[in-house]
Every structure is written in C-alpha cells, then in structure tokens.
Amino acid sequence: MEGSGSDEEVMPMELVASYERVRRLASGNAVVVFSLSGCCMCHVVKRLLFGLGVGPTIVELDEEKGGREMQTVLFQLVGDVQQPLPAVFIGGKFLGGLETVMSCHINGTLVPLLKDAGALWL
C-alpha cells in the first residue's frame, strides 16, 4: 500500500490542473458541452444546440487526454443532485445537464441565454 500514499499526493494536482482546464474551456467559449461519445443524453443536448444554430465547443471526455480527471471535476461540480454528463456551460457559467437544458428550452429561457453569451445572433 505504499503506492497509495503517492497516488493521493499526485491526484490533487491532477484535479487542480483539470479544474483549471475545465474553467478555461468554459470561460473561453460561448457554449461548451462536456460529453461522452456514446452517451445518448449528450447526443440529445448536442443535437438541440446544433438545431438552434449554435456551434458549441464539444469536449468528448472519453477521447480527450486527461478526460477522466476532467470528468471527476465535473462530478464534483454537480454533486449527487443530477446526472453529471452532459455538462453544459453557457457564457462561462455552468447551466446543467440534459434536464436543465431541456427545461430552459421548453420555458423559453435557453435562447436568451445563448444570445447573451454571443452564441446566437437572432
């Protein structure tokens, strides 16, 4: 078990770097979707955004170097209250997952959020 101590020391640094990477991606792009390539809920969110005319930055965590650590950061961000992926950021702020995005779309608040973030020019 000697190795477990060193893993615990390395892991926080990896998570700090992953947190910074998530933060930079979210703040540097109008819309970011953190996704898994085979996730049907992620596919629905991407299709909705594309259908609205948005070109989101998509980060497929299962295809991304450091994706597992980024996914850990996103799990910590959302907690146990909702499905962690897809994780959608609009205008640098965490919006939520599929349920939140669909709720915003249905109640008419999604398009204004996208416009305010500069993702739509309607």
TrEMBL record:
GO cellular component, one term: cytoplasm
Subcellular location: Cytoplasm
Record key words, sorted: Cytoplasm, Redox-active center
Record organism: Nelumbo nucifera
Organism phylogeny: Eukaryota, Viridiplantae, Streptophyta, Embryophyta, Tracheophyta
Name of encoding gene: LOC104589457
NCBIfam families hit by this protein: GlrX-like_plant
Keyword Cytoplasm: yes
Protein family per UniProt: Belongs to the glutaredoxin family. CC-type subfamily.
Protein name as it appears in the record: Glutaredoxin-C9-like
KW ATP-binding (keyword) present: no
